[in-house]
Structure formats: structure tokens, C-alpha cells
Amino acid sequence: MALVLAGRALSVVPISKETEQALAAGQKAQQQGRTADALERYGVFLAAAPLDDRAPWILIQVGDLHAKRKELKEALQAYSRVTISYPAAVEARMARARKRHLGTRMLVVDYVQLIPGRQHEKRWERKAQIRGAMEVFLRHHVALDAAQPPDRR
Predict the structure, then answer these.
(1) Most buried by CB count within 10 Å: which residue of 9, 24, 26, 46?
(2) Model-level pTM?
(3) What does the alpha-carbon distance between residue 106 and residue 100 come to, in Å, rounded to a whole number?
């Protein structure tokens, strides 16, 4: 059961002490630069308290940690969880912006990996593939964003 206040779901189920400790340990690990430990602790928190009002922000942090580790696919999945599971949360707007930026970054990384190639034709062929992938990516995310309710300001 969740209480909705100002478009945000607030947990009315008491959070266990272990869950709170997992969140605190995750935040401490993140501050100390131990990303693997932070991701593990945040995962424990999110599994135990998905309706907590801090869950969207923790998912943003998970996405940022994955992006920092250059795990772009996992970062994109974390941001997508925010926009899908918490569309009315303030963090959903931030997640959508980060998804767009991350998608562009994924394509740039792919393109840069092409440059050392020696065969001119293969490079042009790969550029066309990247351009097509970019168009599909943008169409998909524009459609997802259009399906989301408008953000309230």
C-alpha cells in the first residue's frame, strides 16, 4: 500500500532497519568511490523497498554509477526503470534527459571505435549502420517520452 502525495508515492509500509542500513552503506560506499559495493547495497534497498519515496533517486544513482563504470547498457536500464516505474516523480524528467545523453554517448563511442579501421568502404557502411541505429533509438525514445504523462512544474 502506498500513499500518493503531490504525484510521488510514499511508502506507508515500515522499512526494516536492515534496509535502511543497506541504503546508508550504499551512500557511504558511493562517497568513498567503491562503486561495486554501492551498487550491491542499492540493489538490496531497491529490492526491499520499491515503493519508498527515495527509490527513484537511488535508481538515478545506480544509473550514474553504471555510466561511470562505462556499463552503458545497465545505466540505460536503470534510467528506464525510473521513467517506467515512477513516471510522476521529479526524477523521471532527469532520467529521460540522462537516457538521451547516454544514447548519444553510446553511438559516439561506437563511432570512435571505427576510426582506426583501414578499409574506407567498411567505415562508410558502419557509419550508415550507426546512423540507422541512431534514428531507431531516437524514434523509440521520442515515442516513450510522448507516452509519458507531462511533467508538472
Answers:
(1) 26
(2) 0.65
(3) 10
